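Hi! If you just cloned this repository, the fastest way to understand the data is to look at a raw example. We've pasted two of them here, unedited. The first protein comes first, obviously.
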Amino acid sequence: MHRIGFGYDIHRLEAGRPLVLGGIDIPHGAGLLGHSDGDALVHAIIDALLGALGEGDIGTHFPDTDARYKDAKSLGLLGTVAGLVRSRGGEIVNVDTVVVAEEPKIGPHAAAMKAAIGPVLGLAPGALGIKAKTAEGLGPVGEKRAIACYAVALVRFPD
């Protein structure tokens, strides 16, 4: 049996914060605001995996009201969720993502993001898609006030 999960996240950009996206630090004048490290790409992947499990969303599992997750590394949270998938007998087949940002340019960082995320999920680079888009100047992303991310995950479970 296969199940698909879909995830989405958006975080506001704030000057003076480090930009952590896709599990890596990206040089930029602003970072993503969040209770954890604010990694919207990893958060979208977490939500996609939880969706495939029928298990709510990132806020259910790692609430921003819990001090344990203050400044948490999102890759660690992703590892916990990947472990949950495996504990339920699931195998992550592939994950595909889209990062919507006006800046910084994401393409030059995609390979490093794959190298950071892939091992946590047990995925080869060819089973993890990271695509970059802009918002063509529209909305908070287009106005360079936020970065939005989408993810879809395919998980195989024993019949």
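Ok, and the second one:
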Amino acid sequence: MPNTLKLAGSVAALALSLGGAALAETPSWCGPNPASLALVDGYGGNSWRLVTTASGAAEAALCPSITEYIYADGQGNTQKAISDINSIAARGINALVVFGDAGPAVLPAITN
């Protein structure tokens, strides 16, 4: 099951490291309605993926209408990545970003 990161707690340390000025501005992509966001990573075990995961959480924290940020790491396992996509979609997530490391194998889960 994917890890759920509640914006109030888990992103707080990262947000503090960005400085107060960056947090004061609401990004243009941030809409007025509550929404949930997920990042599904096919393999989150390298430095670049750790940076992108933190960046995604920090960006989501800038938008007050993002109520939930979910991250799932497929750990290089295609079946787990597919399961993560299906599981998060079944939860009714509003926006999903996928690092499709398994290529075409995850496409059916994404299109579903």
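That's it. A detail worth noticing about the second one: Residues 1-23 have pLDDT under 50 and may be disordered.
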